[in-house]
Amino acid sequence: MSSVGFKIFYSMVWLLIIAALLALSVWQWQRAQFKQQLLTEQQQLSQRAPVDLATMATPDLSTFLPVKTHGIYLNDQHLLLANQHYKGRLGYEVITPLQREHDIVLVIRGWAASKPNTRSIPTVLPVLGETTAQGMVYWPPTKGLRLRQAIEENKHWPRIISRVDIAQIQTWFDRPIQPYLVRLTEADPHRLIQAWIPVQTSPHRHLGYALQWFGLAIVAMIAAIVIYRKRGSV
Q1: What are phi and psi for residue 95, nearest 5 degrees?
Q2: Is the pTM of this model over 0.70?
Q3: What contacts 116, CB < 8 A, 6 or more positions away?
Q4: Is residue 149 over pLDDT 50?
Q5: Which of the four pLDDT bands, split at 50, 70 and 90, describes residue 226?
Q6: Which of 31, 36, 68, 76 has the fewest CB atoms nearer than 10 Å to its CB?
Q7: Rounded distance, CA 109 to CA 131, Å?
Q8: Of 182, 184, 187, 185, the residue nearest 58 (C-alpha)
Q9: If you write DSSP's letter for every residue of the chain in order, what string do you get?
Q10: Mean pLDDT on 43-62
Q11: pLDDT digits 0-9 by tens, 209-218
């Protein structure tokens, strides 16, 4: 390879490395902005009075919107979202169907522990009679890992699930299942342990990652210049 060809190849390699590092920095900065927006939205919505789901159309229900709804808990048909951790302990997130007049709303009650080193089913105290569930709207992810075996072999209640798959859950009930869930808040007396947090990684951590990638890009740029000059002086 000629000297000119080598310089062009060398420059292209370093430019690609620096561009990749800068792209990672921008991506982490964008993640920080997104996480901060989520936290701000949740804080703003949490200050609003809960609205009755009977008065709201489904498309108007945004995540974190405070709501309330009335019905009867189907205490013998819990859904247990597996592999949920709280303070280092393994357990389940308990989701109880709330039967209303014409449909069912899935209510996230909170976290319940399994026995150490086992996948035992937790005991959830029943809520008797008609009740009011008060919480906030939660839209489950439409993508994710689905443990086919765990779903197919679990044919008895409570059912263990690997993720909230509304289409799958609908096959277990004879009434329509709403596409959203209600996550109980402190205002509801039937809430279990609250292990869920809206943002797993804080915006500040993403900003830290962004600065790290940007710093590496600067280091790579300096290294490229130094090596290029040394190479040229040889």
Answers
A1: -120, 120
A2: no
A3: 89
A4: no
A5: confident
A6: 76
A7: 13
A8: 182
A9: --HHHHHHHHHHHHHHHHHHHHHHHHHHHHHHHHHHHHHHHHHHHHTSPPEEGGGS-GGG--TT-EEEEEEEE-TT--EEEEEEEETTEEEEEEEEEEE-SS-EEEEEEEEEEPPTTS-PPPP-----SEEEEEEEEEPPPS-----HHHHHS--SSSEEESS--HHHHHTT-SSPEEEEEEEE-TT-TT--B----S-SS-HHHHHHHHHHHHHHHHHHHHHHHHHHHHHHH-
A10: 77
A11: 778 888 888 8
pLDDT digits (tens, 9 = 90+) for 65-107: 889 999 999 999 999 999 888 888 888 999 999 999 999 999 9
Residue boundaries of the structural domains of the chain: 3-39+203-233, 65-184
Q: To 5 degrees, how large is the angle CA 109–CA 181–CA 39?
A: 90
Q: Give the amino acid at 26.
A: V
